[in-house]
Amino acid sequence: MKRAALYMRVSTLDQHPETQLYELRQMAQQRGFHIVEEYTDRISGAKARRPGLDALMRDARRGRFDVILVWASDRIARSVKHLLDLLDEFNRLNIEFVSFREQIDTGGPLGRAIVVIIGAIAELERNLILERVRCLKRPPKTRPLNPA
């Protein structure tokens, strides 16, 4: 039986993580996972430091669970780059990642392929941004005027 960690996040204090929690517990039960810990943050996803996420990562590095369930990838990561960094670390730690809303499951070949595709798109986006920045820094080329 796989040991699972659940991660929920809401952005404001008037929002409630119970909806996420209910669906994640149900998914864990359907897949036969044993829930070892539930981590919750009540903070903006733009914040780099989140107590629940920090605790989840500490426990991941200690090998406390085999799979992480989230309601949606935007609940755990603040950007595509952040998500890819997390997925990369989970992969190194042999921890599967499952997102309820996007139906991403890195425990299977299709889920791993989706992560590779997302990574490739993110790398393309970074390279396009770098190219645009370089173009803005270059002085414009002058062309001789065409006398007519």
TrEMBL record:
Q: Which CDD domains match?
A: SR_ResInv
Superkingdom as given in the UniProt entry:
Bacteria
Pfam families named among the record's database cross-references: Resolvase (PF00239)
Keyword DNA-binding set for record = yes
**Gene Ontology molecular functions:** DNA binding; DNA strand exchange activity
Q: Which keywords label this protein?
A: DNA recombination, DNA-binding
Signal peptide extent: none
- All copies of the Resolvase/invertase-type recombinase catalytic domain together span 3-144
Q: Return the Gene3D superfamilies for the record.
A: Resolvase, N-terminal catalytic domain
Entry keyword annotation includes Flavoprotein: no
Q: What is this protein called?
A: Recombinase family protein
Which species is this record about? Answer: Alloacidobacterium dinghuense
